[in-house]
Amino acid sequence: MTKPEQTRILETFARLDHERAHRTGIPEAVFAEGKTAPQIAALLYALAEKVGYALATRVQPMTAAQVVDELPKIFNTSYNQPGRTLVTSRPDYEPKSTGGKIAILAAGTSDIPVAEEAKVAAEVMGCEVLTFYDVGVAGIHRLVQPVEDILKQDVAAVVVVAGMEGALPSVVRGIVPVPVIGVPTSIGYGYGGKGEAALMSMLQSCAPGMTVVNIDNGFGAGTTAALIANRVVQAIAGKR
Amino acid sequence: MTKPEQTRILETFARLDHERAHRTGIPEAVFAEGKTAPQIAALLYALAEKVGYALATRVQPMTAAQVVDELPKIFNTSYNQPGRTLVTSRPDYEPKSTGGKIAILAAGTSDIPVAEEAKVAAEVMGCEVLTFYDVGVAGIHRLVQPVEDILKQDVAAVVVVAGMEGALPSVVRGIVPVPVIGVPTSIGYGYGGKGEAALMSMLQSCAPGMTVVNIDNGFGAGTTAALIANRVVQAIAGKR
Amino acid sequence: MTKPEQTRILETFARLDHERAHRTGIPEAVFAEGKTAPQIAALLYALAEKVGYALATRVQPMTAAQVVDELPKIFNTSYNQPGRTLVTSRPDYEPKSTGGKIAILAAGTSDIPVAEEAKVAAEVMGCEVLTFYDVGVAGIHRLVQPVEDILKQDVAAVVVVAGMEGALPSVVRGIVPVPVIGVPTSIGYGYGGKGEAALMSMLQSCAPGMTVVNIDNGFGAGTTAALIANRVVQAIAGKR
Amino acid sequence: MTKPEQTRILETFARLDHERAHRTGIPEAVFAEGKTAPQIAALLYALAEKVGYALATRVQPMTAAQVVDELPKIFNTSYNQPGRTLVTSRPDYEPKSTGGKIAILAAGTSDIPVAEEAKVAAEVMGCEVLTFYDVGVAGIHRLVQPVEDILKQDVAAVVVVAGMEGALPSVVRGIVPVPVIGVPTSIGYGYGGKGEAALMSMLQSCAPGMTVVNIDNGFGAGTTAALIANRVVQAIAGKR
Amino acid sequence: MTKPEQTRILETFARLDHERAHRTGIPEAVFAEGKTAPQIAALLYALAEKVGYALATRVQPMTAAQVVDELPKIFNTSYNQPGRTLVTSRPDYEPKSTGGKIAILAAGTSDIPVAEEAKVAAEVMGCEVLTFYDVGVAGIHRLVQPVEDILKQDVAAVVVVAGMEGALPSVVRGIVPVPVIGVPTSIGYGYGGKGEAALMSMLQSCAPGMTVVNIDNGFGAGTTAALIANRVVQAIAGKR
Amino acid sequence: MTKPEQTRILETFARLDHERAHRTGIPEAVFAEGKTAPQIAALLYALAEKVGYALATRVQPMTAAQVVDELPKIFNTSYNQPGRTLVTSRPDYEPKSTGGKIAILAAGTSDIPVAEEAKVAAEVMGCEVLTFYDVGVAGIHRLVQPVEDILKQDVAAVVVVAGMEGALPSVVRGIVPVPVIGVPTSIGYGYGGKGEAALMSMLQSCAPGMTVVNIDNGFGAGTTAALIANRVVQAIAGKR
Amino acid sequence: MTKPEQTRILETFARLDHERAHRTGIPEAVFAEGKTAPQIAALLYALAEKVGYALATRVQPMTAAQVVDELPKIFNTSYNQPGRTLVTSRPDYEPKSTGGKIAILAAGTSDIPVAEEAKVAAEVMGCEVLTFYDVGVAGIHRLVQPVEDILKQDVAAVVVVAGMEGALPSVVRGIVPVPVIGVPTSIGYGYGGKGEAALMSMLQSCAPGMTVVNIDNGFGAGTTAALIANRVVQAIAGKR
Amino acid sequence: MTKPEQTRILETFARLDHERAHRTGIPEAVFAEGKTAPQIAALLYALAEKVGYALATRVQPMTAAQVVDELPKIFNTSYNQPGRTLVTSRPDYEPKSTGGKIAILAAGTSDIPVAEEAKVAAEVMGCEVLTFYDVGVAGIHRLVQPVEDILKQDVAAVVVVAGMEGALPSVVRGIVPVPVIGVPTSIGYGYGGKGEAALMSMLQSCAPGMTVVNIDNGFGAGTTAALIANRVVQAIAGKR
After folding, report:
1. Ranges under pLDDT 70 in chain H
2. Pairing between strand F85-89 and G53-57?
């Protein structure tokens, strides 16, 4: 894709908001669902040019291959298959680590894609991310190690991803003194099986200090956790 | 209420099924909601005469007082206020203990009424009932004692009553080798707050070995648990 | 699949809980939906090595063929096509019959897959299973034989599988003195046709002594029934 | 209420359709919910003057007393308390029996009000009505007598009223060669307890030859059954 | 398919109820959704042998071709493509006309498949069927001719099929003195677009004398209408 | 209420937006539900002082009496009881007629309150309002006169208020060349009876040129119709 | 397609209503979903012959190509791919501009198809249409230019298309003195993600002067806006 | 209430978890709904004795007066009427300010009770709280001042409370670089009017960096915001 092609595609359908990271602390990302590979590529290209890097979410493997083809070869581009995220950056772009730190837990193996989306989103914002997968409530002993690490490493926020009955975030929130962001997933079956059971459970949970995002919204959870972590780091820096 | 009055009231609206205990293992009970005190009294009177005793559920305190007044003074009648149950028996009736044993757990203090309804129903069926209240998942350490007792006393089935996010039955089921009957309650607020969240969670739960009854159905859970416990006892008796 | 391959696959996404049968009375099973054939094979392999045997549910025919290919040839592996279950065991594993006995009824021919899932699950737990299919309420005379058998054979629990209006479990429960576990299926159409009508009916049913599992959850119903049956047998053994 | 008062009240809010019985075979009735006693009285007065008689449904006892007071004393007025219906007629009006015959069954004692509304509506249309109450599926043996009567008396249509899981109409339809009209009632609790479970079950029912009306719509069911019965009678008369 | 093949297939999954027509006035039909062509053929074969003819509904075109292949060539078999129904009969079977007469209206062109299913079902039961399609409420003048025909031909019942907002049955019911059976269809879009809007409208309709069946249930509506029409005819015959 | 009292009350909870009429063409109104009489009075007082007049909706009769008491006696205040609206104006305020003209139809007598709310709102905006009540689809002949008047008087928009199955707006829209605004009301019962059936029907309606507002939102419909009518008048004025 | 072919196809399934434009101000359009290419072509052909032109909505690209093939080559036919609309006209047909003017805003790039459907519908009715796409609330500064244009160009109505949380119409309505028609789209995910969130938001919106159509109903919104705009123009013409 | 009385009441129904503040960063609070005044008093008494202070939420005014009567007179007790919260503390307890700072915005005057609950909860946790009420999106200019204050005062988190269409949190999140916690309220009417519209909108919102709590859950939002604010302060302290 040449620069003029990119411009032409963009003009037909979109208005970029590359000031968003500055204004809100979270960069604009490309939601790939329902977009063609050239559209995704054009948006990533334009954003990366302005901001240095760009992230697309919900990119199917086959689309990802096409997008990679369309992007300039000198860009650094990587695709996270389970998380279906695609990150690209200008050759001169140096990713900055903010020093912020978060943790992400996933209840079942089917919840990993959403957790990985959250992870990539937080990393793009400069945070370090600890991950603990397959630690659902059916075997609560598996939570011991993650909780110890969360406490020791002093993470600023914890993202907990769970489908089915969605009980994990409440349990985690009950044992760590850190804000928890629950992400219900569309993993389940029968009554409440498209994520409603998990969403409802998390909203009903008796554990204050926990908030939620919509079903499967790994990006929203990861960026919010990173926003909190980055604020903690900035506050320290500001006061030093 | 005289015998003829009782007969006359009954004839206008109901057909008793006093063979039900024999046929299904669980006696017919009077669901008091939407019935007048004389109707409830007439039904209890007729059932107690045939079977020896009778149980009414969902009896509001004021109605209960009226029903007690209507029943023959020589009957033994007692009202469980939190559980809103009313039990009456003929003077010559000897309650039989079957030797069956079950446990009932309630997650929050607001779940106690439903738990008590389950307890009375199981006791009427001759079972011994262990109760553990206010043991919700927010403070999981509070579960230690109940679980030890359940294991030590070798109960045949456990009823777990929970509203809000309804996570307790799954957690309990994950640590005891006994069938668990979950009872969602209509305790909650906002999205899913009339018991749907709890019901959905229990149905979605990844813990096999757990089944559920409808929201607030303490009677159904208590009688099913007692049915299981009584079968265990009968089996032993039959093989001895 | 070689042992090292199996280990490598497992490490990337799952933590086995092979103590579960001991702790809860029901062995861990592999829920195949959303997993690849190598993942399913790796999990079955590892579980069978530890426990002697392993069960996977919701395995599509084509996936099943692949999984069978991946498993060691010396394992005994069998696939139940209507029930979509796959069972494998170490060559030295001797299946143990516990002596527990249950019955499974299916209302319509479309409900058979869920019933078969329940059957395999209960058999894996060592129970004997009586099945009666296509005995829906539209022709109630077809229930006579099954009920007689249930009473004569003294089964410990009955699983009743039904879609559409889901009336069969209530009717069965009204005529046998045994706990009934209702399994609503996603068979139906129009309003309430994805299993909600059947689920609601079973939860509303006026028949105490009946509990339910989620829509299409044959595994949950079969294991719970087997858990009850096995407890009855253990109780007898313990008292002898 | 004098004639001028009646006229004045009517003019402020309603337009009567006293030709409806002629056009559609079912007379206009007054749905009393949300209307004041004077409004109900004025409507009944005007309809009875034109047509000879008039029916109001959903009249609360206290309102009924007021309406009776407002109507001319020479009118014949009667109130059916369980059914909450009020019928009035001009002194010169002779109710005509059409010879049509229907049956009404109610599953539980709480379903009787809806059944009585259906009964009065069908009687107002000149039909003979057989009623059988408290014959729910929990004790199916109670259905034997009603079914025999239905077959012997050759009724033209059967109305079956049921709340909770709403299984009775399907069962009845499966054993009588007569169209069945199911009326779900708002009797129930928890999930599906406002009549949705009963409505869904009836719509899902595998029994062709059964149709339904909305929850608690006794009037709609009674009038439809009477319309069918009257058509049968007219057809016979026409061919004689 | 040979006779032994047919028997073998049937034995594995189904129990026929060929007495149903006698008991309930409506013959058993084969609901083809979810069944294989050999299963459908075996069921049709067996039913036609016993009863003379047999009907299958919801048969996709490609499945229909396979079923026709499997059935004995000497049977008379015909497939109604829009209605997706398949009727077969023994060579010696003489279809009997009962003399019953019904009408079927469809609101839009997309509602025709459901209307055709109703039509075939009623014809199989021996009724004459008048059809009027594309007569929706958006152009009410198109109703004039159908209504005149309905009145002149003295049909016993009218089936009205409508999707979207489902207003047609109420309008029709308001102008003909005949029972109306409303069939909501799954034609629509957005909020309420899977037939819920049409179903709700019909249930809420202020027009008494109208009942409904579930979404897309042409078979249920057609057979009920035919049951009414046949009863009218029988009544006349009985009295002559 | 003195001026200082009014100010003090306002300061504690509200920020007026008295420029709204200028900016959007519709004045700010006070939604009284959930507000105390002094709060409503203070808001009306402040708005009337700035703008000349003010309107409150959903004012219960008893609250209305209190509000009237609190308002300055020299204000002109009137309460529309069926519509539960309260209008007040400064003594020097001259209501201006814009010349805009709309029509409002109500299907049933129970829909009149919502229709009256719409009427008052449109009148406050200076429009002339034609009303036609109790003209539901059950007696379509009652529509003839209203439609003639609508066409003759050349109204700019029509508001159609209907509960139950909500069919009236579609029917009206099909016969007048004027934009129709449908207002579903919460009049109904059973499935869809809180206004969902009416709302769904209107949204599904096949009649383009019709839009809707939320259930019972007479104010929204009346002001939108008046906005359209006033624009037509302004356009004429602007071009003259 | 020859004329006789067209006639034959039409006769089998549809009745045209080519007087609709005259009666209601909006021409009949062909809703292509669920229709075959020959059916669509036949309908367009017949309508264009009578009225001069014809519009089909929801035409998939591949179907569109087939329809174009079937239509007479001398007709002027054009397909709008994003909007999936197809317009055809007789060679002698002169499109008339009414002078009416509306604006259409789309919140996100995924909402453009629905916006384009609205645009084509309004243009077919002779209106001029201003479009502003990708102006969602996340970057409210992007609204400045559109609002200025709307005010300056004096449009008669504004269509605002938005999915996800659907907030744009309310915001727009709060700053322009013009009626706003909100169109929720089925763009979204998780809870409320099929357009329910957007629809609910728009119905709940506190902004009077806004009405809505069903999810994805661009045609309904575009035609209603054009109807308003054309009325304004006619009013001016009438008064000149 | 004497100490022994308090102990006796507590023993009958509750198990306190006074370690919760230490373990999770948020103290246990008493949810008063469904509890009697003596129960609330006993819980507050016990908690305040252990921890120094205690908070009850959802305390109705009349209950509050009774609770105040029951608590020791030497305790400092205050009731926030709009927020329905009750705070009590031991005479020797010194409230500690942590230095954390948050902001709370409420869209409408009816949302203030929920906002006040959030405020009291955050203050109890030692935070300073800026409040801005009645700043809904209908008059977006009213947001200018709050946003400036939020930026200048460098708050750590913002709670935004909104009912109806719930758009405010997204708008706020789009203009401040701070995590936003949305609280939907049950303020609304018609479709989605019990808070579902607001909840759905917030979950669908395109603004990352925003999370939500359940409908009306002011306590959950206030404590989460305070938890974040306190972590920021602790982080600074820890690094100094």
Report:
1. 10-18, 137-140, 239-240
2. unpaired
Tell which wins on pLDDT, E193 or A136. Answer: E193
In whole angstroms, give the CA distance from residue C213 to residue C84. 19
User: Which one-letter amino acid corresponds to residue E189?
Assistant: Y
Q: Provide the percentage of residues in chain D whose pLDDT is more than 70.
A: 92
Distance CA G105, CA A16 (A): 17
The partner residue sitting opposite C109, judged by closest CB among E13, E216, E217, is: E13
* d(C-alpha A34, C-alpha C109), whole Å: 40
Chain E positions in Cβ-Cβ contact with residue D236 (cut-off 8 Å): 235-236, 239
Close Cβ partners of D74 (under 8 Å, ≥ 6 residues apart): D91
User: What is the per-residue burial (b if ≥16 Cβ within 10 Å, else e) of H29-58?
Assistant: bbbbeebebebbbbbbbbbbbebebbbbbb
- Hey, is H102 helix, strand or coil? strand
| Strand duo G76-80 + G85-89: pairing | antiparallel
d(CA F27, CA D24): 47
State the Cα–Cα distance between residues F201 and F198, nearest whole angstrom: 5
Q: Is D231 on the interface with F (CB under 8 A)?
A: no
The pLDDT tens digits for F173-193 are 988 999 999 999 999 999 999
Residues of chain D under the 50 pLDDT cut? none
**Do residues E46 and E10 touch, judged by C-beta distance below 8 A?**
yes
Distance (Å, rounded) from C-alpha D25 to C-alpha E174? Answer: 10
Per-residue pLDDT at G138 = 65
Q: Do chains E and D touch (3 or more CB pairs under 8 A)?
A: yes
pTM: 0.92
Determine whether F18 is exposed, middle or buried from the number of CB atoms within 10 Å of its CB (0-12, 13-18, 19+). middle
- Tell me the two tokens of residue D93: 């009006």
Put simply, whether E181 touches D (Cβ < 8 Å) is yes
Q: β-pairing, B128-133 with F76-80? A: unpaired
Q: How far apart are CA A51 and CA A93, in angstroms?
A: 9
Q: Is H190 on the interface with F (CB under 8 A)?
A: yes
Q: How far apart are CA F38 and CA F69, in angstroms?
A: 10
Spatial separation of the C-alpha atoms in residues E142 and E146, rounded to whole Å: 8
Tokens for H82, please give them. 């709009």
Other CB atoms within 10 A of residue B170 CB: 26
Which positions in chain A touch B175 (Cβ < 8 Å)?
140
The residue type of H98 is: T
Q: What is the DSSP secondary-structure string of C163-186?
A: -TT--HHHHHHTT-SS-EEEEE-S
Can you give the pLDDT at residue C240?
55
Chain A within 8 Å of H220 (Cβ-Cβ)?
A: yes
Nearest to G161 by CA among G205, G207, G104, G96: G104
**Would the CB atoms of B205 and A164 count as touching at under 8 Å?**
yes
- Helix or strand run (H / E) with residue D37: helix D37-51
Contact of H96 with chain B, judged by CB distance below 8 Å, is answered with no
Report the range of poorest mean pLDDT among D114-128, E120-134, G14-28: G14-28
pLDDT number for residue G14:
65
Q: Is the pLDDT at E105 greater than 90, yes or no?
A: yes
- Buried b / exposed e over B9-35, threshold 16 CB at 10 Å, is bbeebbebbeebbeebbbbbbbbbeeb
Q: Which of B212, A193, H18, H198 is CA-nearest to residue G205?
A: H198
Beta bridge partners of E101: E128
Residue G109: CB atoms within 10 Å: 20
H166 touches chain G (CB under 8 A): yes
In sequence order, the β-bridge partners of residue A69 are: none
* Contact state of A211 with H207 under an 8 Å Cβ cutoff: no
- Is the distance from CB of F145 to CB of F173 less than 8 angstroms? no
Cα separation, C222 vs C55, whole angstroms: 13
ipTM: 0.92
